Amino acid sequence: MAQNILVAAGFLVYRRLQNEIQYLLLQTSYGEHHWTPPKGHTDPGESEIEAAMRETKEEAGLDPIHLTIIDSFQKVLNYEVRGKPKRVVYWLAQLKDSNTPVILSEEHTNFKWLGFKDASELLKYNDMQVLLKEAHAFIQNLGDS
User: Fold this and answer.
1) Cβ contacts of 50 within 8 Å, gap of 6 or more
2) Could you tell me if 113 and 15 are in contact, meaning their C-beta atoms sit under 8 angstroms apart?
3) pLDDT of residue 82
4) Are the C-beta atoms of 113 and 22 separated by less than 8 Å?
5) What domains are defined for the chain?
6) What are the two backbone dihedrals, phi and then psi, of residue 37, each rounded to the nearest 5 degrees?
7) Pick from 72, 5, 74: which is nearest to 42 by CA?
8) Element (H or E) spanning 24, and its range?
9) What is the DSSP letter of 31?
10) In this predicted structure, what is the pLDDT of residue 49?
């Protein structure tokens, strides 16, 4: 009998500030108050990328019009939450205007824009650190500034 898999999606949002690439991390208001990119569960009938757009708007106040979505980068994380399998899909999204304000929902208590090294240190889970490392290399290889 197949178990129901929880499906979630989000964007690893980044911006270029001077010559630095910075990543948006949100601190959860629940559990261990870990840091994470904006993400959330898919609604019935909703595609994963639609869920990523909706969740980024709900959790960080960033509408798709504020973002350049880079769907050529996709990373799927699989892990268990409370004994159930979970699949989370991440894409990259570049903030078009680095001055666009982040507006948090009640699901998060804080946000930070961090360079690669600081963001890596703040991310608690190894698979998130791998996601960040792969995304950072991908962005650097894009070669645009």
Assistant:
1) 42
2) yes
3) 85
4) yes
5) 6-140 (3.90.79.10)
6) -70, 160
7) 5
8) strand 20-28
9) T
10) 96
- For residue 143, what pLDDT is reported? 65
Task: Give the Cα separation of 27 and 45 in Å (integer).
Answer: 28
Nearest to 89 by CA among 49, 138, 140: 49
pLDDT of 3: 56
CB 60 within 8 A of CB 101: no
Q: Residue 145: what pLDDT?
A: 44
Distance from first CA to last CA of the chain, Å, rounded? 50
Tokens 């898999």 correspond to what residue? 5
CB distance 70 to 91 below 8 Å:
yes
Task: Give me the long-range contacts of 125-132 (CB less than 8 A, separation at least 24).
Answer: 125/34, 127/77, 127/79, 128/36, 128/77, 131/12, 131/75, 131/77, 131/90, 132/12, 132/23
With contact defined as beta carbons under 8 Å apart, do 9 and 55 qualify?
A: yes
pLDDT in tens, 4-58: 889 999 999 999 988 899 999 999 988 888 999 999 999 999 999 999 999 999 9
Phi, psi of 124 (to 5 degrees): -80, -35
pTM: 0.93
pLDDT band at 80 (very low <50, low <70, confident <90, very high): confident
